[in-house]
Design a protein that fits this description.
Radius of gyration: 22 Å
Strand content: 5-15%
Oligomer: single chain
Shape: globular
Distance between the termini: 53 Å
Strand order of the largest sheet: 2-3-8-7-6
Largest sheet: 5 strands, antiparallel
Mean pLDDT: 96
CATH class of the largest domain: Mainly Alpha
CATH superfamily of the largest domain: Butyryl-CoA Dehydrogenase, subunit A, domain 3
Bound molecules: flavin-adenine dinucleotide
């Protein structure tokens, strides 16, 4: 382990968990990641290994069979896993967000029903806000949930969702829909949304009456993990599968979920940047030009120095954002900053490492080629850079309100 991205003040247990995950990444993920990624193959064995390590239940409270660990522990594990292969961190990220939303907002029955099986990875979560016509502007959602006319109290969901990470492999999807019931005309759009807990079988096609998961979207990177659309045609969902029991809370529940998801995406950026740095500093000492290793040319040393500084800064901000949430404080400002900085720096560090590799960086034989296609996703997922800056800017204006 190098000296970068160290975290002060960890407990013995946290250090043990991280050492175990790092060793798993070095032995089980890094040796196969690039090959699986090129084949766009789902990493089944890796996922089984992570289940055995308890990663799917890392933050789920012990009373539900999880490890009851903090957001910081979780984020540091995500950083390690993304260092091995970002797609694997994507497989656990949506699961983690849904488990967190259930913990925070679920009814006692919903928690008892879902969380124990989520802790083992038997139930696997995905979350769905985005639609073909919107991603940033969540308040414009057009998928609807209306009461069934048969008086059962069930809801019928109709609409098309887009960009569903783990859409095929998951068995529980938290779906955000518009439900106008009980809300007077003119209610703000974000106050008439509801999160539905939709159980389904894994796979593609009609996975449940009224619910179709078409095939995987073909992506430039972030392969292996399945990203899909989701089509609902009067999908029947019982009333007790409204998250928290009451309609109209969905927007807030989802925003709470993506807030912790942002720390997670920041952690992914840190992990990918670390790996890019490792590859770059190694290659720079192997490759010779003009009679010496390129690492001895000052221009390359400067690049390495800049890359390492970015790795350190992103890690520090990510750790600060996680610790703020763990202390029970609102962390939207810190999470927004961490997500923004880590994803931008990740892209820059990957680009520098790519340049250090010269022509070989363009070859699929070199790992940096995969990282180069993976880093851009972090600029988009869990809110683009512009959206992070909007969140940060608004919060700053609240904090630094002018007195006159
Ligand atoms: C691989 C992948 C996986 C994903 N997984 C999921 C998932 O699991 N669940 C899910 O719900 N979604 C998921 N998403 C969707 C993701 O959250 C959205 O793509 C993202 O929020 C951006 O939305 P958009 O693509 O509609 O872009 P748009 O919202 O159309 O934005 C386009 C551009 O305009 C900018 N922009 C938008 N509004 C403003 C504004 N007010 N001011 C300034 N600039 C603005 C944006 O920053 C961006 O540059 C995933 C996306 C990808 C690519």
């Amino acid at each position: 382990m190098g000296r970068l991205a160290q975290t002060e003040g960890l407990t013995e247990i946290q250090r043990e968990i991280l050492a175990t995950v790092r060793s798993f990444v070095d032995k089980e993920i890094l040796p196969v990641a690039t090959e699986l990624e090129h084949k766009d193959e789902y990493p089944t064995e890796i996922v089984e290994g992570l289940k055995d390590l308890g990663i799917f239940g890392l933050m789920i409270p012990e009373e539900y069979g999880g490890l009851g660990e903090s957001l910081l522990t979780y984020a540091l594990c995500v950083e390690e896993i993304a260092r091995g292969w970002m797609s694997v961190s994507g497989i656990i990220n949506t699961h983690f967000i849904v488990a967190y939303m259930l913990q925070q907002h679920g009814t006692p029955e919903q928690k008892d029903h879902f969380l124990p099986k989520m802790a083992t990875g038997e139930i696997r979560g995905a979350f769905s806000m985005s639609e073909p016509a919107l991603g940033s502007d969540v308040s414009a959602i057009s998928s609807t949930g209306v009461r069934a006319p048969d008086g059962s109290g069930d809801f019928l969901l109709t609409g098309q969702k887009m960009w569903l990470t783990n859409g095929g492999s998951s068995t529980l999807v938290a779906v955000l829909c518009r439900t106008d019931e009980g809300h007077p005309e003119g209610t703000a759009p974000h106050k008439s949304m509801t999160t539905f807990l939709v159980a389904k079988t894994p796979g593609f096609g009609e996975v449940r009456p009224g619910l179709t998961i078409p095939g995987k979207i073909d992506k430039m990177g972030y392969k292996g993990v399945d990203t899909t659309e989701l089509i609902m045609d009067e999908l029947r969902v019982p009333a007790d599968r409204v998250l928290g029991g009451n309609t109209g809370r969905g927007f807030y529940q989802m925003m709470d979920g993506v807030e912790v998801g942002r720390v997670n995406v920041a952690a992914r950026g840190c992990g990918v940047a670390q790996r890019a740095f490792e590859l770059g500093i190694d290659y720079a000492q192997q490759r010779h030009t003009f009679g010496k290793p390129i690492a001895q040319h000052q221009a390359i040393q400067f690049k390495l120095a800049e890359m390492a500084t970015k790795v350190e800064a992103a890690h520090a901000l990510m750790v600060g954002a996680a610790r703020k949430k763990d202390s029970g404080q609102r962390n939207d400002l810190e999470a927004g900053m961490a997500k923004y900085l880590a994803s931008e720096y990740c892209k820059e560090v990957v680009e520098d490492s790519f340049r250090i590799h010269g022509g070989y960086g363009f070859s699929k034989e070199y790992e940096i080629e995969r990282l180069y296609r993976e880093a851009p996703m972090l600029l988009i997922g869990e809110g683009t850079a512009e959206i992070q800056k909007m969140i940060v800017g608004r919060r700053l204006l609240e904090e630094y309100r002018s007195q006159d």
